[in-house]
Design a protein that fits this description.
The protein has 148 residues and is mainly alpha-helical. It has one domain (30-144): Cytochrome c-like domain (Cytochrome Bc1 Complex, Chain D, domain 2, Orthogonal Bundle). The chain contains five helices and no strands. Helix 1 packs across helix 5 and helix 3 crosses helix 5 (131-144).
């Protein structure tokens, strides 16, 4: 009797493990799709990256934008570099810093606001982003535009 109970428990455990492994890829697809959707909303709406970089990331933004932004399809920046640029902006350019605390210390390019002076990147014309949002919009740009 103990042997048959042990075999039954083993079969149930194996069936549960198999079902979990089969379901795992299905759970990853919606999560990835939700991540892309979140990044898309950030790019096009909350951060309004399209205003300068264009709806399709080609650098053809709104004519009222402060200057021609780079074509994101042609960027050679890595994920970490893109995160840094979105977080810190670009000193002496129109690329804003999306971290509202950028330059309060020296975490951006090793520079403070006082050291940058008039070369301080502007605040975003939309709204600041959280670290999670900066990573999501970076991942969206990488998946949607870079190299395509």
């Amino acid at each position: 009797m103990a042997s048959s109970t042990c075999k039954l428990v083993t079969r149930i455990a194996m069936a549960t493990a198999a079902a979990t492994l089969v379901a795992l890829p299905l759970q990853l697809v919606p999560t990835h799709a939700q991540g892309q959707s979140f990044g898309d909303r950030l790019y096009h709406d909350k951060a309004d990256c399209q205003f300068c970089h264009g709806v399709n990331g080609d650098g053809h933004g709104d004519p009222r934008s402060p200057g021609k932004a780079p074509n994101l399809h042609a960027t050679k920046l890595t994920r970490d570099q893109l995160i840094e640029v979105i977080t810190c902006g670009r000193p002496a350019s129109e690329m804003p810093h999306f971290d509202k605390y950028a330059y309060e210390d020296k975490s951006c390019y090793g520079l403070s606001a006082a050291e940058l002076g008039k070369n301080m990147p502007p605040d975003p014309h939309s709204t600041p982003l959280t670290k999670r949002e900066i990573e999501a919009v970076t991942d969206y740009v990488l998946a949607t535009f870079v190299g395509k």
